[in-house]
Amino acid sequence: MLYLKKLEALMTAKDLKSLISIVFILFLWFILDRFITKSLKRLFVFAEENVGFAVEDNIKIIKRLSTMRLFLIQTVRVLLATIMIPLLFEALGVSVKSFFAGVGMVGLGLSFAAQNLIKDYINGAIILVENQFNIGDWIEIANYSGEVEGFTLRSTKLRDTNGSLVFIPNGQIQTVKNSTKKWAFAVIKMSLSYETDITKVDTIVKNIVKAMREEVNTFIMDDPQVYSINELTLNSVDIIVKIKTEPGKQWVVEREFRTKIKELFAKENIHFAGQRIFLKNI
Prior knowledge:
Layout: H1 2-49, H2 55-91, H3 96-102, H4 104-130, E1 138-141, E2 144-151, E3 155-159, E4 165-169, E5 176-178, E6 184-192, H5 198-214, E7 225-232, E8 237-245, H6 250-267
Antiparallel strand pairs: 1-2, 1-5, 2-3, 3-4, 6-8, 7-8
Helix pairs in contact: 1-2, 3-4, 5-6
């Protein structure tokens, strides 16, 4: 009877020691996670606030720093989990080697499912190294397009024009169309009537772009490329104007150009094409 009481007391002390070890590991994990992630965030905020390049380069660098910050924080958390989880097993009295040996067969079955996860992480690392896109870029992946709102090695988050948040596993990303790299084209297509003086239109287009370039914050980088007659259709003479802009500003320039061209065309009595109706001889 006395032996059983001693054994019970010994087991209780062992359990208490194990419990204290588990609490300590979890507490240490929490503290390290908070300390390292906060330190990284402060470091990157300091770097973003002290970027000493031209304004347009600052925007690119800040986007890149934001992407790198998310990547490093995620990497630190994965490393912490890799270290702390085995320690928790040991504190619970479970041998890590025995545990993995026991779940070896299950792990073999799950390995096929894990292939997609590994592919996601590898492709995410490639995207990061090649700088294919950063937080804040406007990209198109397969049938989805939107602003990059989040990026991890596992997935990419896009906010589309409807405000929906799209999650795309990185392993499924084969081709990326980035509309916010270095520069872009504002492309405006105009369908005009056959009676239009094309030379006059060409002059008006160039004058509009020249006036826009002289304004503040119009984002235009070069003179326009005017394809005077791009196509002849049954109802119209089609003209295309391409204006080189700062990355991501092409849509702003397109809207402003359309507003100005409509106003000037009305003053100059230039008409957009309407549908023509051809009647057969009876």
